[in-house]
Amino acid sequence: MEIIITKNYEEMSKRAASIVFSQVALNRKSVLGLPTGSTPLGLYKYLIEAHKKGYIDFSEVKTFNLDEYFRLDRSDPQSYYYFMMENLVNHINIDTKNVDIPNCMLKDIEKECEDYEERIKAAGGIDLQIIGIGNNGHIGFNEPGEVFSKKTHLVDLKQDTIEANARFFSSIEEVPTQAVTMGIQTIMQSKRLLLIASGLAKAEAIYKIVKGEI
Questions:
Q1: Residues annotated as catalytic (active site), given as ranges
Q2: In 3-state terms, what secondary structure has residue 35?
Q3: Which of 32, 60, 89, 211 is the most exposed, fewest CB within 10 Å of its CB?
């Protein structure tokens, strides 16, 4: 584990973008694992800028999203599909066929979870997985605990996670109570992991990652 401490959010975002830039420069067919939320917005901004300046080419890159809300239509502005399109995909030259996000509107969600794992495997695995961390320590939608779900699965969201995400919705009643997320095993099978976190609200979670128990 390498711990990189930066002065502020902007510097963290630039440093994270340089790591992604290097990955794609070394392998133009890189497979990236991508998160949503407020933390990676700066990273995505710098990647878009680098692409527009001609420094980075996403034409052969494949991406897999960390998670998605269950039964939230992709056209909904709060869906993670919509988030990725608005904040990254629509601004770079990636082939949308290479952008994979769990389809949480399918009837057989267990099969979609299994198929998602197979699609990651067929792509050769994730070369660089970017993750954030929740205030309570959740990774993706994997809540803290002694037992981790290994692979992509449907999960019930804890109340504090629902409350934390309510800021993105008109009311807490609109926040989905379930989501599909990569499991810890899926995440850990990535060849490289880049966890980004910023702000006092994440300080305790980061401290426990470095100093605490698993």
A1: 67, 136, 138, 143
A2: coil
A3: 211
pTM attached to this predicted model: 0.95
- CA trace torsion 69, 104, 60, 142 (10° rounding): 50
Q: How many other CB atoms sit within 10 Å of the CB of residue 25?
A: 12
**What is the Cα–Cα distance from 132 to 73, expressed in whole angstroms?**
23
What's the rounded Cα separation, in Å, for the pair 96 and 44? Answer: 16
Residues in Cβ contact with 81 at an 8 Å cutoff, skipping those fewer than 6 apart: 65, 68, 74, 101
* Token pair in block for residue 64: 């897999």
94-145 residue pLDDT tens: 999 999 999 999 999 999 999 999 999 999 999 999 999 998 899 999 988 7
In the block, residue with structure tokens 């979870």: 113
